[in-house]
Specification:
- Helix 2 packs antiparallel against helix 3 and helix 3 runs antiparallel to helix 5.
- The protein is mainly alpha-helical and 141 residues long.
- The longest helix is centred in the first third of the chain and has 27 residues, at 21-47.
- Strand 3 and strand 4 (114-115) form a beta hairpin.
- The protein has five helices and four strands.
- Bound molecules: zinc ion.
- Zinc ion is lined by residues 108, 110-111, 113, 122, 124-125, 127.
Length: 141
């Protein structure tokens, strides 16, 4: 028990880290960014196929902004800043695409199932779906 405690707390520091607000922001960013892999792995194992859930992109975006803040305002390290300066762009774009795709779904009047574009018939009950803008590109934001 003393050995474990010594690993966690020594030289008056938790895990040997000199904690301050920016260290907390940086570590929260690290944990957030890493947690996306756990979320994606869980979703993939659950469906038994490779899945990238929308929460993966939200965690990527949040982790990137936290780590970019840490890099910009605390470390002022150009390599670290460049690593996170542009990676948020595809994450944000994937969230926009996901939103457009989700909004293009149509509810079946027969059974209430949300059917993805470009289906003309409900994949659950076979009822004809209403016509209208059905592709994600036709659906306004
Ligand atoms: Zn239906």
């Amino acid at each position: 028990m003393d050995t474990l405690l010594a690993l966690l707390w020594h030289d008056t520091r938790l895990l040997g880290i000199d904690w301050n607000t920016w260290k907390v922001i940086g570590w929260v960013g690290n944990v957030t960014f890493f947690s996306r892999f756990i979320v994606q792995w869980y979703a993939t194992e659950k469906r038994k196929q490779v899945v990238v859930p929308v929460s993966f992109w939200w965690l990527s975006l949040a982790g990137t902004f936290l780590l970019l803040s840490y890099a910009l305002f605390y470390r002022s390290d150009s390599v670290f800043i460049f690593a996170y300066a542009f990676s948020w762009i595809p994450y944000a774009r994937n969230l926009v695409i996901h939103r457009r795709h989700a909004r293009a779904h149509v509810g079946c009047s027969g059974c209430g199932t949300e059917c993805p574009p470009p289906a003309n018939y409900c994949f659950h009950c076979g009822a004809r779906l209403p016509a209208g803008p059905r592709t994600p590109a036709e659906t306004p934001d």
